[in-house]
Write a structure and sequence with these properties.
174 residues; five-stranded antiparallel sheet; 3 helices; disordered C terminus
C-alpha cells in the first residue's frame, strides 16, 4: 500500500473510531410530528439527556422546478421561547415557539419537507439532527396529546422518539 493510500486508510479508520466516541448517536433520527386541529404542524425533535433544542430550527423543501437538487428555506427560527421548545417540541411557523424568526413561513408547507435543528449542551452549540417529514403519513384519526407520527408510519410518544436515539454519554467521562 503506497503512502497516499495508507494515509487515506488511516484517516478513514481514525474518523470511524472518533465517531464511536462522540455524541449524539444516529443521524438522521426519526422526528415525531402531527397536525393540530387548527392545521399547524408540531414537531417532536428527538433529544438525548443534557441537550436542548437551541434553535436554528429550519424547514427546507427540495426545489424541484428544473430538476435542481437544491434546498429552499421555507422557515427558520432560533432561541426557544419556552421549556417545551427547549425540550424539542415546537410548532412550525408560530411566533410563540421561538423568540427570533429569521424567515417567516409563507403559505402552506409541502407534503414532504426537511427539518434541521441546532442543539446545545454544557454551553456549546452544535449542529443537531436533520430528517424528512412526510405529511401524507398522517392519518385522519387525531393523535393523543403526547403522540406523534414518524416517517416510518409509527405512532410514538414524545419519550419514545428520543429513546430511539440510543444516547451516548453527553458529559465528560472519567
Amino acid at each position: 500500500m503506497g503512502r497516499p493510500a495508507w494515509t487515506a486508510f488511516a484517516g478513514a479508520v481514525g474518523a470511524l473510531l472518533m465517531s464511536e466516541c462522540t455524541y449524539p448517536g444516529p443521524n438522521p433520527a426519526e422526528f415525531g410530528y402531527k397536525k393540530t386541529a387548527g392545521g399547524d404542524i408540531v414537531i417532536a425533535y428527538p433529544l438525548c439527556p443534557g441537550y436542548t433544542a437551541f434553535g436554528g430550527a429550519a424547514i427546507y423543501a427540495r426545489a424541484d422546478d428544473e430538476g435542481k437538487i437544491d434546498f429552499k428555506t421555507l422557515w427558520q427560527a432560533d432561541r426557544p421561547a419556552s421549556k417545551s421548545v427547549e425540550a424539542g417540541v415546537f410548532t412550525v411557523g408560530v411566533p410563540g415557539s421561538f423568540q427570533t424568526e429569521k424567515r417567516s413561513l409563507k403559505g402552506e408547507l409541502p407534503n414532504k419537507f426537511h427539518v434541521e435543528v441546532t442543539e446545545t449542551s454544557q454551553g456549546r452549540t452544535e449542529h443537531g439532527r436533520d430528517g424528512w417529514i412526510g405529511l401524507k403519513r398522517l392519518t385522519s384519526e387525531p393523535l393523543k396529546n403526547d403522540e406523534f407520527m414518524t416517517n416510518e408510519g409509527e405512532v410514538m410518544t414524545r419519550a419514545e422518539t428520543s429513546d430511539r436515539l440510543k444516547c451516548k454519554s453527553a458529559g465528560p467521562t472519567s
